[in-house]
Design goal:
- The chain has 319 residues and is of the alpha+beta class.
- The strands form 3 sheets. The protein has a 5-stranded antiparallel sheet with strand order 1-2-3-5-4, sandwiched between helices. The chain has a two-stranded antiparallel sheet with strand order 6-9. Strands 7-8 form a two-stranded antiparallel ribbon.
- The two termini are 35 Å apart.
Length: 319
């Protein structure tokens, strides 16, 4: 069992025998498929135990990517111990407060943490991975197309029960994937949203970075701005963009941000549909109409607006 593997590694790391009690409290967060627990033994600071299964190849990247990011002085949890054979890592406990937990606070209260998170994104822009560090496949045309098909299969077909034929035949969607995939220069987190940004010691810290790869920086930016969990107002979205402009001394082209937001929201909707319909996890159910509405806002006036409108209307009326 996953917890048995974490317990065995904990005893090795702490150098304690089987008579010493160890408690493990599950942390049920995210959809990575990993077992994550808070480990506590008397007289020791708590830490986080993570166990992953071989079905998710990105999980194998958690430790090497985490060490690389730490070396680049990004704020990520320190890795105390790893056992590749048991697929276990023991890492720093940053607490339970994430950006999502501040959702109901005024934006001015959240603003310093958004600045802190965006500073991390800017720092990632300058990180240079060593040749021996194996990252996940880069964001090319085929990966963007996979995200689109994931949306078609799990949101449109599985969850909505609608015909995805017009989407599969769409040349506009293919052109979107091709255009975005033409550039993949910079490192991207790939899931840069409020649940993966922990607030610790007054700063934003990044977690769930195992999907790190090369791609377009605007994808991470769109993930934060158009985060369905936070459901930012138009004013808040503009405020985040202004923060980014101050930090990076650049503002993304409107078309690039729109295209990345389109891709990201389609990917998120596909994930929500899969988690609700096929995994039975109804926690994600309320975010389907939110993400659909946001995607509708993004697509307003674009060539894809009419194509996706029937599906988004149905998603906004869904359970």
């Amino acid at each position: 069992m996953s917890t048995d593997a974490i317990l065995a590694c904990t005893r090795i790391y702490l150098d304690i025998d089987p008579t010493v009690p160890v408690s493990m409290t599950p942390i049920k967060k995210g959809a990575s498929g990993r077992t994550i627990v808070r480990v506590l033994s008397q007289g020791r600071d708590p830490f986080i135990g993570i166990h992953w299964k071989p079905e998710r190849p990105d999980s194998e990247n958690f430790v090497p990517v985490g060490r690389f990011l730490k070396k680049c002085k990004l704020r990520v949890p320190e890795i105390y111990y790893e056992n590749r054979n048991k697929r276990v890592a023991l890492v720093q406990d940053l607490g339970d407060v994430d950006l999502l937990s501040l959702k109901d606070r005024p934006f001015e209260e959240r603003k310093p943490y958004y600045r802190s998170a965006l500073e991390q994104m800017d720092q990632l822009f300058y990180a240079r991975p060593p040749k021996e560090l194996e990252l996940m496949p880069l964001f090319d045309e085929s990966l963007y197309r996979w995200e689109q098909e994931y949306f078609m299969e799990h949101l449109v077909e599985d969850y909505l029960g609608m015909d995805s034929g017009p989407l599969k035949a769409s040349q506009e969607l293919r052109a979107l994937a091709k255009g975005l995939g033409a550039t993949a220069k910079h490192l991207v987190h790939r899931d840069f949203q409020s649940q993966n940004i922990l607030l610790h010691d007054g700063e934003a810290w990044l977690i769930d970075f195992q999907g790190l790869r090369r791609g377009r920086q605007e994808y991470d930016l769109a993930s934060l701005i158009y985060d369905p969990y936070m459901d930012h107002s138009a004013d808040d979205r503009e405020a985040i963009l202004e923060l980014w402009e101050q930090i990076s001394e650049d503002r993304p082209a409107e078309s690039a941000l729109r295209d990345c937001a389109t891709q990201r929201l389609m990917q998120a909707l596909g994930a929500y549909g899969n988690l609700v319909e096929n995994k039975g996890d109804e926690w994600y159910l309320p975010f389907i109409p939110v993400a659909a509405r946001l995607l509708g806002d993004v697509l307003e006036g674009s060539p894809l607006q009419d194509l996706l409108a029937p599906y988004l209307r149905q998603a906004m009326r869904s359970r």
